[in-house]
């Protein structure tokens, strides 16, 4: 689906930008970004591009991917061709960059449930081998920092004591390692440890972000995640189809909020630490999120039985609410609750 860039959207980008403390730390730095056309890192690029245009920040953007034309088309209206450097990038191959880099944001990876279950080996290889090449890049550029985009799925399933229902960064539960769907959380866990190991053994400055359930207008037609399906239904004026009761508790975060959180962690996060990304005002059930999108689109929520393939692709966590207190203590704040985020999502698709 194609993003609609306009004045209102840029106002929202400015709002997200204002939520990033000490943003001037990125001025005149070179930032290498993988997954730049994906849902999360595309919002990071939008914030940095606007910062360059309006504040003359001098941030050098190196956008990695397989196709330069695709990147240029994705950011048409906010990035000119000479506003960024392109680096051809394959997650499973080594590569080299001649210019020094100050920051690396690794946001590339397979996060689509259908692809995770269909290609578990590729999912594991992408998460491990893709990160390894970037850690070597950071190792060769002394003084650089690497931010790894992990996932709240690493926490697994956990029975909390009474009065607690959110994962902090120290809460780890059970993951069934013999379930092929575990390829995603288990390889993310391994990748996090790889970041910590490079920090310990080689002194590479690494920091980890654990994202929750992200939604926004930059979804693709092929995205099989529940909120993406809900969004496509609402945009088309169709009733939103749910394949479960939707009573599982989830942390949701609008794309621009997630992007501002990533930049906050990049700038202020402590080395070899992990930070949850979650909007405390958007810890709701799947049904609640579907209802918010339905209201924004003027449609209803209906129910259907899931297929066997859909059942196998579901998130293995019964509850995936994340506690973002550690991130908030860095000075970050979210700007888009479920209602505002749902309205913005449908407005800009």
Quick gist of this model?
This protein is of the alpha/beta class and 349 residues long. It is 40% helix and 16% strand.
**What is the H/E string?**
HEHEHEEHHEHEEHEEHEEHEHHH
Task: Give the count of structural domains.
Answer: 1
Low-confidence stretches: none
- Secondary structure tally, helices: 12
Q: What is the terminal-to-terminal distance? A: 7 Å
Q: Could you state the CATH homologous superfamily? A: NAD(P)-binding Rossmann-like Domain
CATH class: Alpha Beta
3D structure, described in words:
The chain has 349 residues and is an alpha/beta fold. The protein has a single domain, classed as NAD(P)-binding Rossmann-like Domain (Rossmann fold), CATH 3.40.50.720. Helix content is 40%, strand content 16%. The protein is built from twelve helices and twelve strands. It has a seven-stranded parallel sheet with strand order 3-2-1-4-5-6-10, with helices on both faces. Strands 7-9-11 form a three-stranded mixed sheet. A two-stranded parallel ribbon has the order 8-12. α3 links the parallel β2 and β3. α1 packs parallel to α8 and α5 packs parallel to α6. The longest helix is centred in the middle third of the chain and has 21 residues. It is globular. The mean pLDDT is 93.
